[in-house]
Amino acid sequence: MxxxxxxxxTIRFGGLTAVKSLSMSLEKGALYGLxxxxxxxxxxVFNLLTGVYHPNEGSIELDGKSLNxxxxxxxxxxxxxxxxxxxRLFQSMTVLENVKLARHGAxxxxxxxxxxxxxxxxxxxxxxxxxxxxxxxxxxLEGRADEIAINLxxxxxRRLEIARALATDPRILLLDEPAAGMNPQESxxxxxxxxxxxxRFDLTVLLxxxxxxxxxxxxERIQVIDYGETIALGSPREIQDNPKVIxxxxxxx
Amino acid sequence: MKRWLLWLGVLxxxxxxxxxxxxxxxxxxxxxxxxxxxxxxLAVSLNLINxxxxxxxxxxxxxxxxxxxxxxxxxxxxxxxxxxxxxxxxAIGQDAVLLLAGLAAAAIVAGIAGLAVGIPSLxxxxxxxxxxxxxxxxxxxxxxxxxxxxxxARGFSGIEQLSNFFWVYFFxxxxxxxxxxxxxxxxxxxxxxxxxxEIAAEAMGVDTTRFKVLSFVxxxxxxxxxxxxxxxxxxxxxxxxxxxxxxxxxxxxIVIGGLGSIEGAVVGATVFTVALxxxxxxxxxxxxxxxxxxxxIMIYRPQGLLGSWTLFKGRRKAAPxxxxx
Lengths: 253, 325
Hints:
heterodimer, A: alpha/beta, six-stranded mixed beta sheet, 39% helix, B: ABC transporter involved in vitamin B12 uptake, BtuC
């Protein structure tokens, strides 16, 4: 059984079935791609996995534990971390503070420690700062640690979002269109970065992406959905040759 | 160890000022100075919820009233018993124990009120939360109006005078240090993350409902303490002091000082209280000119007098534009 198991998940918004009987299985360490034309339901799948929406039918399990009714924060603390398609950095915080915030779930200080600013709390804050700086170094952002996060260039903001997601110590990293708005060189760098991150942090990665070069270059297994239903599943090569996929993207004759 | 020494020095300075201040500046200025202190506690505490956590509460006067009446009632009805327990202390020590007992009760009851209001209502956002907190403040006031044992509409009189410059400014310092420490911890980052982007905060593992309630409870507890200090200073409480106008006054303080800045709340509370007194000379034009002053501040310093400037670290914590009323 995989690390993440989705079985027959369905979610409806009024009369619209956004995701229909979707199943998905991610092995530990997988680099898994989820693609589909605009409006296929990819981001809805992300929102189901992270608890923003709850499925009407079906089950989602992380390492055997059901996520069906949990809040997003609980799911995040269980090891599912994500980035956002439209970047959602904390706008008043610096680059460093954005990453430090994500260490929230691992904190050991309680309200009293924080109120008294005692040794335990100070030591932990120092540790959080070191951890955060270490992550920023991996993403080449250490030089801009004290800048307000939303003043960074677009590509750096995307990288910062990944760094922030990693700061939660995830087991599964969900990337929602990380290459959106990037030029070809930046996308290429991103591909290498995703691989490096997966190996270094021993992660399982689920990628939603429009940029086919990135998806085909990075993912080992790809699932294609259209109108909320799975239409193909396989290796990049199998997907590229699949007539159903071509039809979904280019339209049938 | 060093920190204890610092606090001891602070206590000595406050005691020295308490002994000399009334003679130096006269009873009127002394009274205004004490009221400035009470308002600083209110503003700094409300700033935690409105400025840092970004939830728009306009019910602070409700918690202030809960604290004021709780402390006054405890001291009035339980005072003799408490004095009996600590009868071995000199009179000044008995007063201190009585006041601290009153303030502890004020903080606890106001905190519980904060929890009771916060749990159901902090699922609401923006305007809806504002309306619920406004309603809560009015409910408290109407309840007090109808409880005869604490004076009802006649007001609660005969409250023992226990608080003074020393105690008010001691709690001003406690409030500032506690809120400052909390803001500069994992908890503070969680509060600010909720203000900036609730969805991202949840995705990063912050239980947003729980943390909103937490900031609401901490804020309410300090409002309760402010209420207790106020009641034991003025010796008389009336429900009319706790209308929604009182809540708005605290909001004005933190907005003119700069939302999301502790120093701003201190400056805002001081400017607000002192300006209202100085303008008394203008007689009937007092409130009109005060309004003009506020408008001018908002035109020339829309980010507040101090903006998000902070004394302690070079880091800025700007409130998002939408929050600046």
